[in-house]
Amino acid sequence: MSWRWALARRVAKLAATDGGGGAQAQRLLPTSSAAAGTGLLGRLHMPLASQIRSKVVGCRGAALVSSRWLHDAQYQVRQDGASRAQEQQDPFELVADELSLLANRLRSMVAAEVPKLASAAEYFFKVGAEGKRFRPTVLLLMASALKFPLSESTEGGVLSILADKLRTRQQNIAEITEMIHVASLLHDDVLDDADTRRGVSSLNLIMGNKLSVLAGDFLLSRACVALAALGNTEVVSLMATAVEHLVTGETMQISTSREQRRSMEYYLQKTYYKTASLISNSCKAVAILAGHTAEVSMLAYEYGRNLGLAFQLIDDVLDFTGTSASLGKGSLSDIRHGIITAPMLYAIEEFPQLQEVVDRGFDNPANIEIALDYLRKSRGIERTKELAREHADRAVKAIESLPDSDDEDVLTSRRALIDITERVITRTK
To answer: Which residues, in sequence order, are CB contacts of 362 under 8 Å at separation 6+?
Structure first.
C-alpha cells in the first residue's frame, strides 16, 4: 500500500469520525482558498516531509473542512483501490498457492485402504491429470470477493483467527466440489464409453467400468464426510441438491423423447443440472458460510449459474470446432452419441429438414456428415456463442451488484471473476 493511499485513507477516516465538523481532518489541510488549489491531493508529487510542514503551518487558521474536498478525498480512496484491482492479473495465479494446498489435501482425502480403489480414486488428482481446477479457482476467488474487511487493529486478534477459520471452511467447499465433479466425470465416462479424459486415458479404459463406478461412489462418500464436518445444514442441503441435479441431468440426457431432443428449453434445463448447478450452489455455499444475506448469497449463486451455462455452451461449440488434442477428449463426441446440443438445435430452426436426419440417429456416419453440412450452412455456432455471451454478461452483472467495497483484495478478486467470464467464452480448449 503506497503512502499516498494510506494518507488519503487516513483523511477520509478522520472526516468520517469527527462528528461532521472535520476538526481533526482540518489539521491536514491548507487554510486559504489559494492554498487549497495545491492541497493534499494537488501536491501528492511533493516530498512527504515538505507536505507535512506545509500542513502544520496551514492548519493555524483553519476553521472548517470543505465538504467538497472531503468528497474528493473519499473519491480518491475508491479510485486508487479500483485502479489497483483493475490491473490485469491471471485469476488462476491469484489463488495458485491455495490451489496447491488444496491439491495436496485432496490427494490425502481420497486415500483408501484397498490399493486398487485408492489408485482409482486418486487417478484424476495426480499431478498432471488434475485438469484446469476451474471450479476450485472460482470458489476461492468468490470467497475473497465476499470477504468482510478487517481493520488493521484487529489483525492477529480474535477476528483475524475467525477469518482464517472461515477461509479454511470455504476451502473445504472447493475440495468437496472438486470431489463431486470428478466423481461425475468417472460415472459419465462409463455411460459414454469414453476412452480419453483431460488428455489422458479414461479410468474406465484402464481399470474397467466396475472399478470406475466404485471409485466415483467412493469420492462421493468422502465428499459427504467432509460436508458433514462443516456442520451447516443449509450448505449440506445445497450440495446434496447439486448431486441430485447431476443424476437428474444425466438421466434427462439418456432418456429423451423426440420432442425433447428438439427443445432448447429442455436442453438448457439439462445443461443447468449437469454443469451449472454444482458451481452455482457451491458459490452460494461459500457466501452462506461467510454469513452474508440471502440477497448477496443469491448474487453468488447467479454468478455461478450463468458462468456454468456459458461454460457448457462453449463446450458444445468446441465439440464441433475443436480437435481431439485440444479438447483432451474426442471431438464430435456428442453427436456421435446422439446428443443434440445448442449449435445443432439452432441449425434445425434454420433448416427444419435436418430434424429428419436427427431422428434417424447417427449410427450411420453418412448422417453425421449430412448434419455437419447443415450446421456449417447455418448460424448455429454463432448463435450458441451469442447465447454464451448473454449468460457471461449476466454473471458479470451479478458481481457488479455485490455490495460496495474499498478493500483491494476484494476488488481484485471481483475483477478476476469477471475476467474468468471472458476467458470462458473465448477459450479454444
So the answer is: 335, 336, 338, 368, 371
Dihedral pair phi/psi, residue 39, rounded to 5°: -75, -160
How far is 415 from 420, CA to CA, in rounded Å? 9
267: Cβ–Cβ under 8 A, 6 or more apart, which residues? 340, 341, 342, 345
* d(C-alpha 279, C-alpha 300), whole Å: 10
- Cβ-Cβ contacts under 8 Å for 350 (sequence gap 6 or more): 377, 378, 379, 380
Listed range (71-75, 101-105, 163-167, 418-422) with the worst mean pLDDT: 71-75
Contacts of 239 (CB under 8 A, 6+ apart): 173, 176, 177, 180, 223, 227, 281, 282, 285
DSSP summary character for residue 39: S
C-alpha cell at 254: 439418456
DSSP labels, 244-302: HHHHHHHHHHHS--HHHHT-HHHHHHHHIIIIIHHHHHHHHHHHHHTT--HHHHHHHHH
398-402 long-range contacts, CB within 8 A, separation 24+: 398/299, 398/300, 398/302, 398/303, 398/306, 399/145, 399/299, 399/303, 401/299, 402/145, 402/146, 402/296, 402/299
pLDDT at 165 over 60: yes
Nearest-angstrom CA–CA distance, 58 and 8 = 18
317 touches 387 (CB < 8 A): no
Q: What sign results for the dihedral spanned by CA atoms 352, 356, 359, 364?
A: negative
Dump the DSSP string for 111-142: --SSHHHHHHHTGGGSTTSSTT-HHHHHHHHH
Q: Do residues 208 and 175 make contact, with C-beta atoms less than 8 angstroms apart?
A: no
Q: Is residue 262 within 8 Å of 268, Cβ to Cβ?
A: no
Q: Is the pTM of this model over 0.85?
A: no
CB within 8 Å of 48: residues ≥ 6 apart: 3
> Three cell numbers at 121?
480414486
DSSP 45-110: TS-HHHHHHHHHHHGGG-----HHHHHHHHHHHHHHHHHHHTS---HHHHTHHHHHHHHHHHHHHT
Within its chain, how far is the Cα of 8 from the centroid?
A: 32
**Spatial distance between the Cα atoms of 290 and 235, rounded to a whole number of angstroms:** 11
pLDDT at 60: 40
345 confidence band (pLDDT: 50, 70, 90): very high
Cell readout for 304 is 455461478
* Residue of 3 and 298 predicted with greater confidence: 298
Q: Which residues contact 232 (CB under 8 A, 6 or more apart)?
A: 288, 289
